[in-house]
Write a structure and sequence with these properties.
It contains 16 helices and 31 strands. It is of the alpha+beta class. It folds into three domains: about 290 residues, BirA Bifunctional Protein, domain 2 (2-Layer Sandwich); about 140 residues, Alpha-Beta Complex (YbaK protein), CATH 3.90.960; about 100 residues, Anticodon-binding domain (Rossmann fold, 3-Layer(aba) Sandwich). The chain binds one RNA strand through β16, α14 and α15.
RNA sequence: CGGGGUGUAGCGCAGCCCGGCUAGCGCACCUGCUUCGGGAGCAGGGGGUCGCCGGUUCGAAUCCGGCCACCCCGACCA
């Protein structure tokens, strides 16, 4: 590609809208342009980089037996109604009517379509297992897109779907993906960790997320350096320190004016927060299909812990959950700041296991300015459910080895789900087993956000001067900077080298613009192509061209006649470096 | 959806408080000459419904009201 013909331009100033490095640099270097909130175009450089990532994914998917297909972006509502997600998913799914007034949806994922295909194509156990995948556009009307390509509404996703006759088969394909995803990320030079995760709207039994660790990440992860435990905070468990054993004592109402927070209460009574019970009031939408209702939830955790909304929502089967307001709290007979489950009516009471096992806690009296001492679950109030609903935090004990957990931030670049038969049952995805008995196909679903991955790579690989692409995903492998404006030896040499390298199958960008050297060097740094060759009259006088790796300061002078071989070898070396990172990992359940 | 911020040329901004000549600056763009190994110089030039609608006023980029878009924090979500 000749840079004089390149569709995009670099920008000297960054738009005030961009805050994170990847967003700023991808904009400045001319990889992407924003059309609307969370909606981007990929210009030639961005498109080529994206295609490189896609090809790496394709190769790996094909290597594990995947067959590429393309599924529709527009779906009839019916299949989503049959699995129930039409009712469960909120405004994140965009719906519209076609000209015949039929309800349609823009695809946010493709389990329904896969299950529909299964019902048409798979009839016998002899056809299983299968693995299909696509690289397709998804639309999710996220309430708040942000950070450039990290979180968008329209995006490209690689999604694969495994089909098996039984759970053992699923587990096998799941583990193959587990490794395969590491291969993909490693080949792109992106370090990720796999963590156990919530299954969210997918449902299913088990899931992992692949996380690129970065302070700009939106997810909080709890990691144990002792045993390797790693989980998204949404589901992370931890070793809860039990309070000292006590015999249940008699309830006692006490005046505690001005103690609407646990901190104030613990200070007034001069006791640790762990001796108190904290009531948190939420409203939740629950129900199946079109029958939904809002329920009042009273969640109780120990004073020294925090409610984990994902765990709580999972416990009550909430489709949506939000904080209750004061009127709703008083309607069940409680009181903001002085709440407890004692004597409340019409609330679903969910109690954390650490509260249920503790004795003689101080809880609210459901009356302003009063608390009750020696409150005991089961004696003073009944719990609808006793379950872990507390959030793990930095420093909490690892659930497996009790070492201190570390909290880090990460961006989810991929996920894998063991779905089971939820979708195939709903859509008639059956097959006949060896005994002639109809069974539902067992599904797994596996996603990678391709654009998000590119953004993470940009986030990881940059310096003060611009992007520094790993060779495997760089839009071009070699950047020839030609320092001459007219005809002459420099132009001839650059053109010849360009022709030879291109002929060898390399992607080469030739800066043939009639600009000053400074401009060309700045742009080369900004765009970040790994190998740079500078061809100018000054060097040619001595029969040399200059060779430089983007990531290194050092510049080498190479005899013109060796330039081709040197560049080819360098590119190969960079590939091999990344290939060495592709190694077997241990499966962490 | 709650809180905060921004909207003036392709990009970055000033002007707005305190209404008033033809709306300005830098970069980018076009023409010519010079320059040519780290974002060149000189000269000339093109480009604006001041986000949109309404109001106040002799007069609105500027004041008032409504709406829209975008960004950040939170809620939410994969």
């Amino acid at each position: 590609m000749r840079m004089s013909r390149l569709f995009s331009q670099t920008l000297r100033d960054i738009t005030a809208d961009a805050e994170v490095a990847s967003h700023q640099l991808l904009l400045r270097a001319g990889f992407i342009r924003q059309l609307a909130s969370g909606i981007f175009s990929y210009l030639p450089l961005g498109h080529k980089a994206l295609r490189k990532v896609e090809e790496i994914i394709r190769r790996e998917m094909d290597a594990i037996g995947g067959q590429e297909i393309t599924m529709p972006v527009v779906h009839p509502a019916e299949i989503w109604q049959q699995t129930g997600r039409w009712y469960e998913v909120g405004s994140e799914m965009s719906r519209f009517k076609d000209k015949n007034d039929r309800d349609m949806v823009l695809a946010m994922t493709h389990e329904e379509v896969v299950a529909d295909l299964v019902s048409r194509e798979i009839h016998s156990y002899k056809q299983l297992p299968q693995l299909v995948y696509q690289i397709q556009t998804k639309w999710r009307d996220d309430p708040r897109p942000r950070s450039g390509l990290i979180r968008v509404r329209e995006f490209t996703m690689k999604d694969s779907y495994s089909l098996d006759a039984d759970w053992e088969g699923l587990d096998k394909q799941y583990r193959v993906h587990y490794q395969s995803y590491f291969n993909i990320f490693n080949r792109c030079g992106l370090d990720v960790i796999a963590v156990s995760s919530d299954t969210g709207m997918m449902g299913g039994e088990m899931a992992h997320e692949y996380m690129y660790l970065t302070p700009i990440g939106e997810d909080t992860l709890l990691l144990c350096d002792g045993c390797g435990y790693a989980a998204n905070r949404q589901i992370a468990t931890f070793a809860k320190k039990a309070n000292p054993k006590e015999e249940p004592a008699v309830q006692e109402k006490i005046a505690t004016p001005g103690t609407a927070t646990i901190d104030d209460l613990a200070r007034l009574l001069d006791m640790p927060a762990s001796k108190t019970a904290k009531a948190v009031f939420m409203m939740a939408t629950v129900g199946k299909g079109e029958e939904k209702e809002d329920k009042f939830i009273l969640a109780v955790v120990r004073g020294d812990m925090e409610v984990n909304e994902t765990k709580l929502a999972n416990a009550v089967g909430a489709l949506e959950m939000w904080p209750a307001n004061e009127a709703e709290i008083r309607a069940v007979g409680s009181e903001p700041g002085y709440g407890s489950p004692i004597g409340v009516k019409g609330a679903l009471i969910i109690v954390d296991d650490a509260v249920a096992s503790a004795t003689n806690l101080v809880a609210g009296a459901n009356e302003p300015g009063f608390h009750v001492k020696n409150v005991n679950c089961g004696r003073d109030y009944e719990a609808e459910q006793i379950v872990d609903i507390a959030s793990a935090r930095e420093g909490d004990g690892c659930p497996r080895c009790e070492a201190a957990l570390r909290a880090v931030r990460g961006v989810e670049t991929g996920n894998i789900f063991q779905l089971g038969t939820k979708f195939t049952e709903a859509l008639g995805g059956n097959f006949l087993d060896a005994n002639g008995k109809a069974q539902s196909v067992v599904m797994g679903s596996y996603g990678i956000g391709v654009g998000r991955m590119l953004a993470c790579i940009a986030e990881e690989y940059n310096d003060d001067n611009g992007l520094v692409w790993p060779i495997t995903v760089a839009p071009f492998q070699v950047h020839i900077v030609l320092l001459a404006k007219g005809e002459g030896e420099a132009q001839d040499v650059a053109e010849k080298l360009y022709g030879e390298l291109t002929g060898r199958g390399l992607d080469v960008l030739l800066d043939d613009r009639k600009d000053n050297p400074g401009v060309k060097f700045k742009d080369a740094d900004l765009i970040g192509i790994p190998v740079r060759v500078t061809v100018g009259d000054r060097g040619l006088k001595n029969g040399i061209v200059e060779f430089k790796l983007r990531r290194e300061e050092q510049r080498l002078e190479i005899p013109v006649e060796d330039a081709f071989e040197h560049v080819v070898a360098a590119v190969e070396g960079l590939y091999n470096e990344l290939e060495e990172r592709v190694v077997e990992v241990e499966y962490e359940k």
